Request: fold
Amino acid sequence: MTTQEKQSPETFIRFSPLQRLLHMVVMIGFTGLAVTGFSLKFSAQWWAHGFAWLVGGAGHLAYLHRFFAVITYGCVLVHIIWLFYFKLVLKGSITGPQSLFPKVQDIKDMFQHMGYFFGRRSIPRFNRFTYWEKFDYLALFLGMNTMGLTGLFLWFPEFFTTFLPGVFINLAQVLHLYEAILAVALKFVVHIVTTHLRPETFPVEKTIFNGKTTREKMMHEHPEELDSIEV
Amino acid sequence: MGKRGIEQFIKRMLYLSICLGSLFLAWHVNAGEIKPMMPPQLEGKTRDCLDCHRYPNVETNAGAFASQAFCLECHQKDACIRTVDKINVSLKIDPLEIRKGRHAFVGCIQCHTDVARSPHQSKTGAQCLSCHPVHNGAGEIHAPHLRVRCQACHSVSKFVYLDKATNEVRLSHTNGKGLPIGLTDHNLQDTGRADFCQRCHTPGNTVGAADAVLPSKSFICIMCHDGSLTMGGPLFWVALILLILGLLLMVHFWFQGSVQGEEKSMHRKMGLVSESIWGTFFSRDFFTILKTILLDIILQRRLLQESVKRWFIHSLIFLPILFRFLLSIFTFFVSRIGPESSLAVILIDKNSGFTAFVNDLCGILILLGIVLAALQRLIIKPPHVVAEAKDNLALLLIGLLIFFGFVTEGVRILMTQVPPEVGIYSFIGYPISRLLSPMGVQWSAFYPYLWWVHAVLGAIFVAYLPFGKMRHMFNTPLTLLLNYKMK
Reply:
């Protein structure tokens, strides 16, 4: 921001290799789910014909959809296991200021940020995760659980209708589709625009892929976290 | 209008009348040909050809019910019988049974595809495989069941026979006493019941089945065979748990040392190692690693530089095991992505030419490698070879595993009466079956024991991987990769 002199930029590790790997698997899994799922749902469209042709038929689309579902939900499970590891072994704080836990401060930050957009207030001093990053993460984390549940209803209808009324399968079909549209819209529009297509990071935010961020970027985007590291 | 004009007019009129005349003639001739066919009289009702010779849209419930209603018109009557050897066999079908079953919403001609013919009969029987794939993947049932027709297991009738012409086990149209029976019961066998396998798997069966019901092939057998996601019993669970424990212990042992100066915190060590792996994987070093894997790990370049003889013996054992492992993984995915594809059927069928040949070839190469290594260690004993007990145990284990694999294969070929033109692709197993055939042993009683010996050896092999000599298949590649990194 203010440092003009040329110096070798100090790098910080923002994401661990596990987090990078999970992002990559979710990225591939989620895109695969979207492509195969929509190709099945909108099977009359020309592009759906194209994808079905590419993988050798609707049966294979269904198989791949389940494969991608398994790897994507596997990442959710790894996150849950990690949460226990973080709490019990590393004695970390799940609700602390550095966590992804939503807090009142996030709502305040959001209003201050809106004010900043209209030139009325200063930019809020974000901590490790900003409010939109938390929203992005939690939307996917919680959404994958509900998608997983309705998906399981559709995968094993015989099992679930042994104790649930049959109408749950129809409900699952409706909810699975609309939540899929919601999730795809959120990820492919909101997430990509707010993280990758910002002027500061265009065309790609590399931090999630190589884990590294610079001091300048930290000062710009996460000043509160930088303060807590340097104290 | 001059003289020329009149001539032209007459010409045109002539042409016109010829055209119209031929049109009228054509219409007249054809009109005479079309005569409505007299509908045949049947039981006082008129029948149209299309009543029978048609294909309603059986993809819809309405079409399926139309198909059922049409067939049941005769088949729900008591009088619907067929006479075989002067014995009346009822062909009556209870509509309520159909309504209760799994195929309630399926038209009759969807399965009985060839009944709409004259005279009315079915030559091919119900076609299960036009809707259902062969058993999803290989392992839930054993590959030898590929020669068993669906109805032989899934029908409630328990009379089956071995059709010598096709070498298939089929549902029999006669009962145990040779009397014809009707097979119109459309109920399906509850395959969750354990005892239904004993229809064939019982001492003294005539279809070439083993006397005892064997568990499905376990997932750990994927080391060499195509496997399923079933575990197949406590023995294999123990083997898998020992394998996982051994691997965890090994990783734990690796992390005993310091990582980039970090001595104590396991968390930090893991973090540093994964950071280093990530950094190498997503860099130009990736291609160097690929080269190391290909030349040093798969092709064993270093061993070749040391001694051609040792490289040859090691490769005889290592490469076929690796190949069969990769082929099994490939089969696992193919049989799940496209269980109906002919590729999947070829890969899971032990009698198909490709699979039988490859399995036998790999097996005999490994066995040859084991024999050469044993000669080297126990008889020739060159000065640089130190025959440790640990090494000999590993060799013995693999050798016994392969040996019993071949014996079991031979007995299977003998027991299931595989015809020579099919069996000969198993170029080791088939000769073994010929050698065993004069012994006059009840092989179907003996086969389960052989199978279990091979399975127990396999389980021991898998459980022993991270402990004894065979630990080198994890350690050595890792060392090679780390050495590259240090260079």
Notes: Chain B has three domains: 48-130, 143-199, 220-486.
